[in-house]
Amino acid sequence: QRGILARVYGDQILMSCNEVGRLPPTFAEASLVAQETLASGYEFESGKIHYNKFRNAASYSQQTLPVIGSASLDVGDEALSAYDELDGTVLKDYSDFSLASQVFYAMLEGQASEQSSRMSAMEAASSNASDMIDSLQLQFNRTRQAVITRELIEIISGAAALD
User: Fold this and answer.
1) Do the Cβ atoms of 116 and 55 come closer than 8 Å?
2) Is the pLDDT of residue 113 over 80?
3) By three-state DSSP, how is residue 119 classified?
4) Could you give the angle at which helices 88-162 and 27-39 cross, rounded to 10 degrees?
5) Among residues of the chain, what percentage have pLDDT more than 70?
6) Nearest to 47 by CA among 111, 109, 113, 106
7) How far apart are CA 57 and CA 142, in angstroms?
């Protein structure tokens, strides 16, 4: 599936990750993804993270998280400097941590959605297997009853022929 996305949206894909999400997500894994994204040299003012948001055990929805790049944060913004002295490194650190936190949040929501989908699929499979077992048991009992009935008819017919 990654190949299809690469052919259609290749110019919009910055990187792909192997083995990410195989185990339950950790903040270290999310920060590694964020670090590699920032180290790629791609400058952005804003972006979006698309992820599956867990709603309940039966469903999830596709959501987006807005991501603000460090290039769009301005040290001279009065709203930001009203609370604390800010310089470029503080804002860059904030931007990096914010990206890692958002990636981690999206990974956790995706993991919850996947586990919910797996549980629903396993429950449906178990229910279908139970229905199939009941149907096969009924068919087996009918066949066994037919064989016993035929044998009884043969025995009775044989006894009647001897008389």
Assistant:
1) no
2) yes
3) helix
4) 120
5) 89
6) 106
7) 39
